[in-house]
Amino acid sequence: MFTTLRAKVFVGFLLILLLLVGLGGYAIYSLASLADVTSEALEQSAEQNLANTSMYESLVRLDEAELRMLAGDTVDAGPVLV
Fold first, then answer.
1. Tens digit of pLDDT for each residue in 19-52?
2. Where do the structural domains in the chain lie, given as residue ranges?
3. Which residues contact 2 (CB under 8 A, 6 or more apart)?
4. Could you give the CA distance from residue 47 to residue 12 in angstroms, rounded to a whole number?
5. What is the C-alpha to C-alpha distance for residues 12 and 19, in angstroms, rounded to an integer?
6. Phi, psi dihedral angles at 58 (to 5 degrees)
């Protein structure tokens, strides 16, 4: 079928080129799906961090109110809880 060396080299080059294009397409697809998964994980992490911060601030307010009540300052302890 391919009798000349030039034709054989050209066909080999085309095969390698097709493999490279296919591999490049697969790499782009893989990176795009990885980016989607990563962005979802970062969004969930950000939501969890906001919830943790909110819980921590609530605990700090409760602790402050408790310390004020233990010190006998019940008038100022109430507004700290709000």
1. 999 999 999 999 999 998 999 999 999 999 999 9
2. 5-81
3. 8, 11
4. 53
5. 11
6. -65, -40
| Mean pLDDT rounded to a whole number for the chain | 89
CA distances from 55 to 17, 51, 52, 61, 63 (A): 57, 6, 5, 10, 12
Burial of 80 (0-12, 13-18, 19+ CB in 10 A): middle
Q: Which helix (H) or strand (E) holds 34?
A: helix 5-70
Average pLDDT over residues 4-10: 94
**8: Cβ contacts below 8 Å, ≥ 6 apart:** 2
Structure confidence at residue 3 (pLDDT): 85
CB-neighbour burial class of residue 63 (10 A; exposed 0-12, middle 13-18, buried 19+) = exposed
